[in-house]
Amino acid sequence: MIYSLMNIGCLQIDFKFADLTDIESVYIPKSAWPIFAKQVHEESPIFEMVILATCNRFEIYFVSQDHEQARDWIIQSISQLKELSTTHIREKMRFMHFQTALTHLFRVSAGMESMVFGEDEILSQIKSAYTDFQALGLTKALFNKVFQTAIAAGKRARHETEISRGAYSVSSIAVDAIRELRLDYFGASILIIGAGTIAMRALKKLHALGHPSITMCNRTDSKLKSLQERYQIQALPFASLETDVSRFDIVLIATASTAYLLKPAFFKTDTDSEQLILDLCVPRNVDPDVAKLTHIQLLTVDSLQKIADKNVNKRQKEHTKVTLILDDEMTKIDQWIAHRMIHNVS
């Protein structure tokens, strides 16, 4: 069977059309992907699939001969997995197909749909998503070509235009928020919880700024030891998080946990010291009730939008140049499909 671009669909939700609570409600964590993939293989009308899940977007790309049947199957599966009504999912998630879905993927890859126009982090996230679903056996000829070309287009956009010049990642925006909200941040103690991409980028930026008091906390002690040596930071055992988190002035958390790691009971109520907490995760790692404590300011990804909007005008001027690159790369896919049809390659 030869599939064309007309067989591609996408069901998605992102920060532009929904708040964090809505994204969180339909978000399927990476830990559940193998089970979800097994269901796709065994009982769905879907031939190929890639899920892109970041801190501010959740997108399911698929290949199917029947878009409506595939969309309904995905919605029903999310409904069962997340214990949500199908009506809620239909209201919150947008459906795109054919050229609209492909164009959206290419724009996401180029950073044109990011919270910060032109940011780099999304490209590595797309690579990772593609690799994960390739390993799960859910990418074949069409999605291998589509995602490899989208990644190539994202690279070209960054190398051949100014779209990424001075671009921020979510981690960088978080550090800027710290500097903006805490003018005395250089004298504040900072705890970073997690050691994944977002947490590491925050650590590297703070280290580059010369911040003298950084502590890391992670489930894996071996990784902490290597980070201590490289960045001259302190380490907090994960088992001590509950008792010690309240002693830090600033806490930045970014882990893959699907449960709340920080709860109101972990924080002192008989103190005048203000704490700034930044939760950069979806699903959130901090119980929203923490924000009700009078001495705590809690920021989530939603809260970073205003800071993200600053200093992006120059990069947005590259819009036309980037669009031409994306069009060129999408033409290559059209030519590839036409060649396969002529030669009857399945």
Topology, please?
Elements: E1 8-14, H1 20-26, H2 33-43, E2 48-53, E3 57-63, H3 67-82, H4 86-92, E4 94-97, H5 99-110, H6 121-135, H7 141-160, H8 170-181, E5 190-193, H9 197-208, E6 214-218, H10 221-231, E7 234-237, H11 241-244, E8 250-253, E9 275-279, E10 296-300, H12 305-308, H13 313-316, H14 319-342
Parallel strand pairs: 5-6, 5-8, 6-7, 8-9, 9-10
Antiparallel strand pairs: 1-3, 1-4, 2-3
Short description:
By secondary structure, the protein is α/β, with parallel strands linked by helices. The protein contains 14 helices and ten strands. 46% of the residues lie in helices and 15% in strands.
- At the third CATH level, what is the topology name of the largest domain? Beta Polymerase, domain 2
Helix % is 40-55%
Beta-strand residue percentage: 5-15%
What's the total count of β strands? 10
Give the SSE string: EHHEEHHEHHHHEHEHEHEEEHHH
Strands of the biggest beta sheet: in what spatial order?
7-6-5-8-9-10
Per DSSP, the total helix count is 14
